[in-house]
Amino acid sequence: MSQILVFGASSSEGYWNPDGGWVAKLKKVYIKRSLRNRDFWCSIRNLSISGNTATDLLERFDNETDARFSAEEGNLVIIFDIGKNDSAYVNKIGHPSVSDAKFRKNINTLIKRAKKYTKTIIFLTITPVDEKEVYHKPFIFTAHGEKLFYSNSRITKFNSILYKSCKEQNVNFIDTFTSFKKAGYEKLLFDGLHLNSSGHDLVFKIVRRFLAQKKYESFLYD
After folding, report:
1. Distance between CA 178 and CA 163 in Å, rounded?
2. Domain map (residue ranges) of the chain
């Protein structure tokens, strides 16, 4: 049996999509495949949590993965939307939530931990935001009463860190940021930050196509 674990924050958890988001769409593909072939079985589990940062994910990654992966299974880890909350400015523009150095360290540590369970790891970049909605005015008040601001320049910097870490450690990397820009990302967002139904559809298509091209779980295509 193959096992796929998806880690991320709100845009992976499926917020703002009545069908459950791109991970739920991917899961439906597996279910249809298993109905056609009773010898086939693949489990896909969405372990994303809204608001998560790389630090948050590190704190729970081993426990979540230990509980689900075993050595004989075809293990695959997909990580998307981790880094967007790290990239935010807190309370005022220019006051970063997480330093570049800390984010780089966290991502490198996360990759090393994931490699304990599987050689097949896929990182997706952070998607762009509509700055009219989330940079020039505060977007979220956290549980601690903090105001968060997001910018594409900061997201681009964090995407560069993701790319470099993945390249150095030979991990798969998908540039969803560029795909969203080409598609006109403003229309793919519900509130300037989170994906709407069209945004989830695009991520689903990108992931499905990548898995097929790399021959990872090639049964994804009918």
Report:
1. 13
2. 2-220
Q: What gap in Å lies between CA 146 and CA 92, rounded to an integer?
A: 9
Cα 73 to Cα 42: distance, rounded to the nearest angstrom: 10
Strand, helix or coil for residue 75: strand
CB 175 within 8 A of CB 123: no
Phi, psi for residue 101 in degrees, rounded to 5:
-65, -40
Biggest distance spanned by C-alpha atoms of the chain: 55
Instruction: Report the b/e string of 68-105 with b at 16+ CB within 10 A.
Output: bbeeebebbbbbbbbbbbbbbbbeeeeeebbeeeebbb
Grade residue 65 by pLDDT with cuts at 50, 70 and 90.
very high
Q: Which value, in Å, is the radius of gyration of the alpha carbons in the chain? A: 17
> To the nearest whole number, what is the mean pLDDT of the chain?
88
Average pLDDT on 71-97 reads: 88
Q: Is the pTM of this model over 0.85?
A: yes
Pick 25 or 143 by higher pLDDT: 25
Q: How far apart are CA 5 and CA 143, in angstroms?
A: 28
Q: Which of 20-29, 119-128, 144-153, 211-220 shows the highest mean pLDDT?
A: 119-128
What is the topology classification, in CATH, of domain 2-220?
Answer: Rossmann fold (3.40.50)
